[in-house]
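Researcher: Here's a chain I'd like modeled. Treat it as a single chain, no partners, no ligands.
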Amino acid sequence: MKKVNVGVIGLGTWGEVHVKAFTSIPHANLVAVCDIRHERALYIKEKYHVKKVYTNYEDLVKDKDIDAVTIALPDFLHRDPAVRAAEEGKHVLVEKPLATNIEDAEAIVRAARKAGVKLMVDFHNRWNPPFLHAKQAIEQGELGDVIYIYGRLSDTIYVPTKMLSWASRTNVMWFLGSHLVDITRWLLSRDKPVSVYGIKKEGILKSMGIETPDMICGIIRWSKGAISYLECCWILPETEPKLYDFKYEIIGSSGTIYIDTSHNRCIEKYLQKSYEYPDTLGLFESFGKPRGFAIDSLSHFIDCIIHDKEPIATGEDGLVVTKIICYLLKSIEEMRPLTIS
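Model: Modeled as a single isolated chain. Structure tokens:
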């Protein structure tokens, strides 16, 4: 079976995950990497034995040896490389969120449609085992009608202060909440959002010179009657045993599901000066190979190209999530609930 030649644009924390994945996925062949930081690009090239390195995404998308491109840039920079990759006939995977405004998201979807290439958004929690179980339970009617969904996904303050140099140019609802919005809509079988109301709290990060809210919450009403309350913050103390806190509840007319993917204590590690709950779901190593649902989603992208299948998380899904969050943020600005058109 022919392998898919892949190029990765953006070599930050998650971009390196892409690189690790494509060096281990059987039918993927990592051909090139790209980052504006030349030293970082060379480091990744040498560490993972990549054939080509670029510092300009235009050069990578024009590379005729490449079949598919994945984009792991800061969320506000997705449009131009995604559109150009599609125009050059490359299949495209974009990290979540697809874009941080509706115009950019529509442009990416439109470019992929026109070029006839695959467009996938890496909403990898659709491959997360607890959510797969919840999806099956809902579809099999075990919970009855879904009445209420509560989701919380938060990070420690390490993320906006030390991990992301660009935290002031985004917010926690884009960075984390896009996961919650997507997984909620997916569990509700792509139900249509009817209205949204958002609130925010700011002060701690702004006092540190980082111009972004500390937390954002939102209530979404869905067309079939369900209500969801989603909350995100990124000011948890660095002493947390996990970088993130992820809790989720689904309440139905005849059953309830509680999900804890961060503090489930499947394994607890205590050392002399620290302790942690190592990841056993999203990303871990098994006999030198990266494993977990974060790898499964990238493998699915390759499988869709080889077998000409529609991705489980499409560009259109990404566009809807962007629209919902844009309305939520506008609701915060106007201090009132908004109907989603």
